[in-house]
Design brief:
The complex is a heterodimer of chains A (299) and B (96). Chain A has a five-stranded mixed sheet with strand order 3-2-1-4-5, sandwiched between helices. In chain A, α1 packs antiparallel against α5 and α4 crosses α5. Chain A is built from five helices and six strands; from the N terminus they run αβαβαβαβββα. Chain A folds into two domains: 60 residues; 221 residues, Pyruvate Kinase, Chain: A, domain 1. Chain A is elongated. Chain B has 96 residues and is mainly β. Chain B has a single domain, classed as ATP Synthase, domain 1. Helices cover 0% and strands 70% of the residues of chain B. Chain B is globular. The chains are: A alpha/beta (299), B mainly beta (96). β6 of chain A pairs parallel with β4 of chain B. Chain B: It is found in: Cell membrane. Chain B: Produces ATP from ADP in the presence of a proton gradient across the membrane. Chain B: It is a peripheral membrane protein.
Chain lengths: 299, 96
């Protein structure tokens, strides 16, 4: 009987130290999420300006650009998966990976070959463990992405998109990331980044949204050539930022639940430990009483 | 004379916004000066220096930028740059 009491005590202790860890993770995530959301809103003016400029060029000139045209010479397509570097974020990585799997399955059913690019260590280990070849991976900054990382990812994808078919060129780029809706809701989303669907997803501008008749310097084609890579980079950066905010929100919620569960466990084990102690005392008393009885009847 | 509303934005945030009398930017074909009432223009920027003369006088503000683009219409200028290398308020000694 004394054994079970000791076991409960040990469990209470280990659960308490786990609880401390969960609590710390929760607080860390909570303190970072504000900054992550700030970054999302800081990047908004840039992407708004660039989207407006791209639609201006696209509507007022007849130039085409390789990024706007469907490629028919290859069936290779790229999928960029944005997940987290670390776990302890509930189903965050799992659900975005599941979404990616669904997308890959659909693309393969359409007869396409998928080249997979991933960002985030969780996604990388998921696929390397399953022996799937990755065309590229970036890790180390999933909860605070920088413009440099976004630029690197964009350059890699754009290079692949520009490459000829026999040099591993790709015909489409899809991005799977988690959209930050609010603190409780984060939704995995799939977007097709390339070829670009211009004026797609452009937020209806607040003012009278007639784009002015711009003069292009030096000429529309050159302007477009300078704008589109930046546009792609800003879209990728925005996705990374959304994913980072979602990751932190998911982690905060998961760790909050974990803390509460740990508290429940501690309460339960304390009750069991008390019961065991009570049982032990009762047993001891009855042993003493029966021992005394035996002595009394013997004399 | 009317002033220009200027927004200078980089990928990771707004750098400066306010009203200005004149903007000088390193456009693709050479430096371009913009005053209020300029025709709508969308131009690529080369690496170089952006100078903004704030409304109501004062010191010229300068930023070294790594390229980007500038769009201007109805006295609203948006300068979008990849990154600002250095800049802010210039020293008085450098004049303009």
């Amino acid at each position: 009987m004394a054994g079970s009491q000791r076991i409960y005590k040990a469990r209470i202790k280990s659960t308490q130290s786990l609880k401390k860890m969960f609590r710390a993770q929760e607080l860390i995530a909570a303190s970072r999420i504000g900054r992550a959301r700030d970054r999302v809103s800081l990047a908004a003016p840039y992407s708004r300006a660039i989207t407006r400029a791209v639609s201006a060029v696209a509507t007022h000139s007849n130039v085409t650009h390789p990024f706007l045209v469907e490629r028919a010479d290859t069936s290779r397509v790229a999928v960029l998966l944005i997940a987290s570097d670390r776990g302890m974020a509930g189903a965050y990585s799992a659900s975005v990976i599941r979404e990616t799997e669904r997308l890959i399955e659909r693309l393969e059913r359409e007869g396409k070959t998928v080249a997979l690019y991933v960002s985030g260590r969780r996604a990388e280990t998921y696929y390397t463990f399953r022996g799937r070849e990755l065309a590229g991976s970036w890790t180390g900054s999933s909860d605070a992405p920088s413009t440099d990382v976004a630029g690197e990812i964009a350059d890699t994808l754009l290079d692949a998109f520009r490459a000829p078919a026999d040099a591993g060129g790709i015909a489409e780029v899809h991005v799977v990331y988690t959209q930050f809706v609010n603190m409780v809701t984060q939704r995995p989303r799939v977007i097709r980044l390339l070829p670009l669907e211009v004026v797609e997803g452009v937020a209806p501008a607040d003012e009278s949204d007639t784009l002015p008749l711009y003069e292009f310097e030096p000429e529309p084609a050159v302007v477009l050539d300078a704008l589109l890579p930046r546009y792609v980079r800003s879209r990728i950066y925005a996705s990374l930022l959304q994913a980072a905010a979602s990751e932190l929100a998911a982690r905060q919620r998961a760790m909050h639940t974990a803390t509460e569960n740990a508290e429940d466990l501690i309460r339960m084990y304390t009750r069991l430990a008390n019961q065991a102690r009570q049982g032990e005392i009762t047993q001891e008393i009855s042993e003493i009483v029966s021992g005394a009885d035996a002595l009394a009847s013997a004399s | 004379m009317a002033d220009i509303e200027v927004d200078l934005v980089a990928a990771d945030g707004k750098v400066w916004s306010g009203t200005a009398q004149r903007i000088i930017a390193p456009a693709g074909d050479g430096e371009m000066g913009i005053l209020a009432g300029h025709t709508p223009v969308l131009t690529v920027l080369k690496p170089g220096e952006i100078r903004v003369l704030p409304a109501g006088g004062g010191e010229v503000m300068r930023w070294q930028v790594e390229g980007g683009f500038l769009s201007f219409d109805s006295n609203q200028a948006t300068v979008v740059v990849d990154s600002v290398v250095s800049g802010g308020r210039s020293s008085a000694a450098s004049g303009h």
